[in-house]
Structure formats: structure tokens, C-alpha cells
Amino acid sequence: MARSVWKGPFIDGYLLKKADKSRSSGRNEVIKMWSRRSTILPQFVGLTFGVYNGHKFIPVLVTENMVGHKFGEFSPTRTFHGHAVDKKAKRK
Amino acid sequence: MARIAGVNIPTNKRVLIALTYIHGIGRAKARDIVTKVGITEERRVNQLSDDEVLRIREVIDREYQVEGDLRRGVAMNIKRLMDLGCYRGLRHRRGLPVRGQRTHTNARTRKGPAKAIAGKKKVTK
């Protein structure tokens, strides 16, 4: 079910501060962040975030289309390399 | 023969049912259309006058996205997700369920027919 509009988008407050800081100072820096649950806001467009996936910080360059999605959607938490071919079964 | 919204030619069925042959129109929308045009549902398509068919066509053109347009819209939405590189897009790319269903078993609608795994023993009683 979609979130109620009257609540507004959910976002962890510290992100706004971090974003402002990187905007005003050194550019092109990956902002490390753990808040996968936060909504991507229009003012984040153009910034790069390192979204933690439990293992690494995945760099996410925010584009206009991403607004409204959550950060976590762009940083997959599972790795699947496909199933290995069973060698034993092949030999028989 | 009545041609509504492109290629659809529903025949001698009741109007309400015949309209559902159009992609994007189900029972609910068919009922809406019928009331807007002012025909009773029980009428059959071959009993409709040309004028009534025209009015149905107008209502559909004006108010609903139907057939090719609708399909294109849906495909565009999926493509947007895939290009974005978000989780839902990745699931679409791999042909797996998008909305968090289990894939350990089932999920055959998305995955297609089961592929045999080489060397797996069949369970025999």
C-alpha cells in the first residue's frame, strides 16, 4: 500500500545536512550513508551517495528519474552468481 | 460487425460483454461506458445503430487508454524501471517476481516452465 500523502516523504534528517554540506563544499564526493529507507528528494539530484548494502557502499549517482524511489532500491543486498554446473552428475 | 478502438470486432454478444474484448476494458469500465452512452446493457452489439456505435467509440477515445496506447504505456513503465537500475528493474531484467514473492518454489508464472536439472534424482516410492 502506498504511503499517505499528508505524511510527506520519509527521510532521515541527517541526510539533508550531509547533502547541503557536500553541495556547498568539495564537489564530487561520495556521501556515505546507511539510511536505505530514505526517499530520494529532488534536491539530491546530481549528488553521488554511497549506499550501504551491508557489505560495501554502492555509489549511486542520483538522476531526476530516481526522485520518489528509496535509496535502498539502488543498492542490491544479495549476490547471485548462478548455479554451478554439477560436475559429478555430468560424468556419469 | 462493429469496429471499436482499432481492431476489436465484438459480435452478437451483449454490449457489456462485447466491450470487454477490448484490451483495457473490463466489466466495470464497460458498465461506465454503457451508462454514459445511454444504452441498456442487455442490448446486443448487432442491435445497435451506427450512431450508438459511434458514440461508444467517442467515449472510449476520449476517456480511456486502450489497446496499443495502454500496452505501450505499461511497457514504458517497465522500461523506465529497467533503465533506472533499481531493484524492481533488476527483477524485470532477470524475469523474476518483482514484488517480493518467494522464488525457492513456485514463481512459475515469471520463470516459465521448470527446467530439468542435470543429475537430479527423481523421487520414487
Descriptive overview:
The complex is a heterodimer of chains A (92) and B (125). With 92 residues, chain A is an alpha+beta fold. Helices cover 18% and strands 14% of the residues of chain A. Chain A contains 2 helices and 3 strands. A 3-stranded mixed beta sheet of chain A has the order 1-2-3, with helices on one face. The mean pLDDT of chain A is 85. Chain B is an all-alpha fold. The longest helix of chain B is centred in the middle third of the chain and has 18 residues, at 67-84. The A-B interface holds A 63, 65-66, 69, 72-74, 76, 85-86, 88-90, 92 and B 80, 83-88, 90, 117-120.
Shape of chain A from CA axes? globular
Largest sheet of chain B, in brief, is: none
Shape of chain B: elongated
The percent of residues in helical segments of chain A reads 10-25%
Mean pLDDT of chain A: 85
Series of secondary-structure elements of chain B, N-terminal to C-terminal: HHHHHH
Number of E-state strands of chain A: 3
Question: What is the chains' assembly state?
Answer: heterodimer
Helicity of chain B, in percent? 40-55%
Q: How many individual helices of chain B?
A: 6
Number of helices of chain A: 2
Helix/strand-derived class of chain B? mainly alpha
Order of helices and strands of chain A: HEEEH
Main β sheet profile of chain A: 3 strands, mixed
In terms of DSSP E residues, the strand content of chain A is: 5-15%
Radius of gyration of chain B from CA coordinates: 22 Å
Residue-averaged pLDDT of chain B: 86
What is the secondary structure topology, with strand pairs?
The complex is a heterodimer of chains A (92) and B (125).
Chain A: H1 13-24, E1 31-33, E2 48-52, E3 57-61, H2 87-91
Chain B: H1 15-19, H2 27-37, H3 50-63, H4 67-84, H5 87-94, H6 108-111
